């Protein structure tokens, strides 16, 4: 339960997790002040379109806005942009900010993650990470001017940017030390099938290679790889992961070694909860700590964390969440849910023209623990339900095989009953939460 000094709840971070938290407070009839701070001067943008629709130029900046400012104000949610949290004193329930100290009755930490820079590459024009609208729009300008793009890192953001850049006609080369794109999630075979899809669209690959140096003084000009080969680059997109934005909490006596450490209820300290990409929490469903950098997790955690702030200890809900993410590349939607187990069963669709299309199930101790679907949304929806019900592996495989036998080709544009997400066009201010 919250103390009620009148200070209200302060949310740090006005993105997916923070705004879902603020709205959940109002949904739970919390009547005190709700103040949301964000270091960014700009209104919060949704990040998934930054590598897809906004980069492609098919959505406007306004369409990527997470929430309508008037709608938030109408619910008594006071959003203050350009205010950075710089420290926290738990004893006195005081947040230190760039605009001065701020007292709170309850605090939600939702400061997300920041993109990792390429070690040793420094900063200069043409060298990008992708986390903000400004990053996206600057990269788009280069691509529209005909830049040759090198993508460093064949993870999901890198591969989405590669696909979008090809749609803009750019020359694209992907560099990664691993053997196949998105290998960590897809495994080597499905990763190679995805590589073929990209190659068919004209993407070049330098896999099994790392970057030695980025050349160019006033702006990037080329990338030298660890085999001394040189790839021309007018622009370089670095997509090598993100780190939790928890450094500002270092002096607060909290564990921030792997993100803000939270318990199963997303509590980090008395009256302090965390949500989203910044959080390293104990997920009771899997009996271990994890940090997830995906949209749906951030939305769900925001809502759970906020409710748990308001209720008595015995009434709190654990964040026993099943991780989920999607990625759109060309007309293919990739979806993954769960945590990979050691019993892996690959169920290809058997399409000669679209060999990447498949479902991959994995399990542990005879029970389904993860589902990966490449280009087959319908089967994914069913398999995801089975995942939540902890279905035996053999039963799950038989069900998915039957589904795949009768399936029609579907694309990323198809409507899909998976929880609504920001890639789906929507009205400004409408809720996109699951
Ligand atoms: C290019 C891109 C594409 C993506 N595509 C997908 C996708 O297709 N599917 C998917 O599932 N996920 C995707 N994601 C991941 C998803 O967007 C994130 O998981 C989600 O944004 C996390 O939300 P969050 O609220 O935890 O943090 P963030 O979105 O990182 O927001 C944190 C906010 O906190 C603010 N902040 C940070 N530090 C401070 C401070 N000290 N004081 C005040 N404010 C601060 C920041 O300015 C920021 O606005 C993508 C991410 C990117 C970057």
TrEMBL record:
<feature type="domain" description="FAD/NAD(P)-binding">
    <location>
        <begin position="9"/>
        <end position="302"/>
    </location>
</feature>
<dbReference type="InterPro" id="IPR028202">
    <property type="entry name" value="Reductase_C"/>
</dbReference>
<dbReference type="Pfam" id="PF07992">
    <property type="entry name" value="Pyr_redox_2"/>
</dbReference>
<protein>
    <submittedName>
        <fullName>Pyridine nucleotide-disulfide oxidoreductase</fullName>
    </submittedName>
</protein>
<dbReference type="Pfam" id="PF14759">
    <property type="entry name" value="Reductase_C"/>
</dbReference>
<keyword id="KW-0285">Flavoprotein</keyword>
<dbReference type="InterPro" id="IPR016156">
    <property type="entry name" value="FAD/NAD-linked_Rdtase_dimer_sf"/>
</dbReference>
<dbReference type="GO" id="GO:0005737">
    <property type="term" value="C:cytoplasm"/>
</dbReference>
<dbReference type="GO" id="GO:0016651">
    <property type="term" value="F:oxidoreductase activity, acting on NAD(P)H"/>
</dbReference>
<dbReference type="InterPro" id="IPR023753">
    <property type="entry name" value="FAD/NAD-binding_dom"/>
</dbReference>
<dbReference type="InterPro" id="IPR050446">
    <property type="entry name" value="FAD-oxidoreductase/Apoptosis"/>
</dbReference>
<feature type="region of interest" description="Disordered">
    <location>
        <begin position="404"/>
        <end position="434"/>
    </location>
</feature>
<dbReference type="InterPro" id="IPR036188">
    <property type="entry name" value="FAD/NAD-bd_sf"/>
</dbReference>
<feature type="domain" description="Reductase C-terminal">
    <location>
        <begin position="324"/>
        <end position="398"/>
    </location>
</feature>
<keyword id="KW-0560">Oxidoreductase</keyword>
<keyword id="KW-0274">FAD</keyword>
């Amino acid at each position: 339960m919250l103390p009620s000094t009148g200070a209200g709840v302060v949310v740090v971070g006005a993105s997916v997790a923070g705004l879902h938290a603020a709205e959940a407070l109002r949904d739970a009839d919390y009547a005190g002040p709700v103040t949301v701070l964000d270091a960014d001067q700009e209104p919060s943008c949704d990040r998934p379109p930054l590598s897809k629709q906004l980069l492609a130029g098919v959505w406007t900046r306004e369409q990527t806005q997470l929430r309508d400012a008037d709608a938030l104000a109408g619910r008594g949610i006071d959003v203050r942009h350009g205010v950075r949290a710089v420290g926290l004193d738990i004893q006195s329930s005081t947040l230190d900010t760039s605009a001065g100290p701020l007292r709170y009755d309850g605090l939600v930490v939702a400061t997300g993650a920041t993109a990792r820079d390429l070690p040793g590459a420094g900063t200069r024009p043409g060298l990008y990470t992708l986390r903000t609208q400004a990053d996206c729009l600057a990269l788009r300008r280069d691509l529209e001017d005909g830049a040759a793009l090198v993508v460093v890192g064949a993870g999901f953001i890198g591969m989405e940017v590669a696909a979008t850049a090809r749609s803009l006609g750019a020359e694209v080369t992907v560099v990664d030390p691993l053997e196949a794109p998105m290998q960590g999630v897809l495994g080597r075979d499905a990763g190679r099938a995805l590589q073929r899809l990209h190659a068919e669209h004209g993407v070049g690959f330098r896999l099994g290679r790392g970057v030695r140096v980025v050349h160019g003084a006033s702006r990037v000009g080329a990338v030298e790889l660890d085999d001394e080969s040189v790839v021309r680059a007018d622009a370089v997109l670095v997509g090598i992961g993100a780190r939790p934005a928890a450094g500002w909490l270092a002096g607060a006596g909290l564990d921030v070694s792997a993100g803000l450490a939270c318990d199963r209820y997303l509590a980090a300290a008395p009256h302090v909860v965390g949500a989203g990409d910044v959080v390293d929490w104990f997920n009771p469903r899997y009996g271990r700590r994890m940090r997830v950098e995906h949209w749906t997790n951030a939305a769900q955690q925001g809502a759970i964390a906020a409710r748990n702030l308001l209720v008595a200890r015995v009434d709190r809900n654990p964040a026993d969440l099943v991780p989920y993410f999607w990625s759109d590349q060309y007309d293919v939607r990739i979806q993954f849910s769960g945590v990979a187990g050691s019993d892996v069963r690959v169920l290809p669709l058997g399409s000669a023209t679209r060999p990447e299309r498949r479902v991959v199930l994995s399990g542990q101790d005879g029970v389904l623990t993860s589902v990966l679907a490449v280009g087959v949304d319908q089967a994914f929806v069913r398999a995801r339900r089975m995942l939540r019900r902890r279905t035996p592996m053999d039963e799950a495989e038989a069900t998915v095989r039957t589904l795949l036998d009768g399936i029609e080709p579907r694309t990323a544009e198809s409507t899909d009953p998976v929880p609504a997400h920001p890639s789906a066009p929507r009205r400004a201010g409408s809720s996109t939460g699951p």
